[in-house]
Specification:
This protein is of the alpha/beta class. 33% of the residues lie in helices and 27% in strands.
Length: 310
Amino acid sequence: MSAIVETDAVNVAAIADPVPEMAQEAQKLAPDAAVVADLDALLGLGLDGVVIATPSALHAVQSIRALEAGAAVFCQKPLGRTAGEVRAVVEAARAADRLLGVDLSYRFTEAMRAVRGVLAEGGIGRPYAVDLVFHNAYGPDKAWFYDPALSGGGCVMDLGVHLVDLALWALDFPEVVEVSSHLFAGGEPLAGGEGQVEDYAVASLTLATGTVVRLACSWRLQAGRDAVIEAAFYGTEGGLALHNVGGSFYDFTAERYRGTARETLASPPDSWGGRAAADWARRLAAGERFAPEAERFASVAAVLDRIYRR
């Protein structure tokens, strides 16, 4: 909300939240906004766009309802619990010709943008290996995260979605030809149909380019720090890496490697948390409508489905 308001590109017309205290906090950032009962009341106002920040089970159905009402949508991740749900939202955006954004916020860190820029220039030669990690020493504090029917999955859906998106986005979305994975709950292999979500996962993706992507993510790992977040790209002529600083969820550096030498490309401070939403707001204000890049949301969701073997 703060990042959108600070763009000065759009007006926050109305707020809906089932928790009155949350609505009041939001209204402090947009004191002229009306507080209404629910999504239907928001859509009844004929808004140009809607930001959806509800539990995951509601994302697809609420996004589709908003798009069909003629509103552009910016949605928290994941856009849907399955690739089918995500594809349905993308198709609704295409049919309505409305802008669709998802809060894949790590794309907007200065560190990751520096990494992608070097990759786009061919600065490390041909990338052949990618290592990605997102370990969270904590777990979500809402019960619905642990119900697969409501969340769609555990740490892969919550954290792994960022890793898959960063790898594919940085490499310009090559086809994923092979996926293997191992999921755990409480240190034990997780079998299907158990009504549990995973709290640790490892996966390997083979891309059509021959690049191999390895990723690991977890909740409540005994990591000795709050978080471990890394994205490393290795090529025939060098390497690149984003990594968090001192266990922080917010501070990142980017480095470029040549043999044993390293060069810093980006470092804190970097106030990136709301940039994805602010970018969507500016594009909405500029009159942008459906963009084919939204189809990439379905590409990421399809990989998550394969990690979950569904």
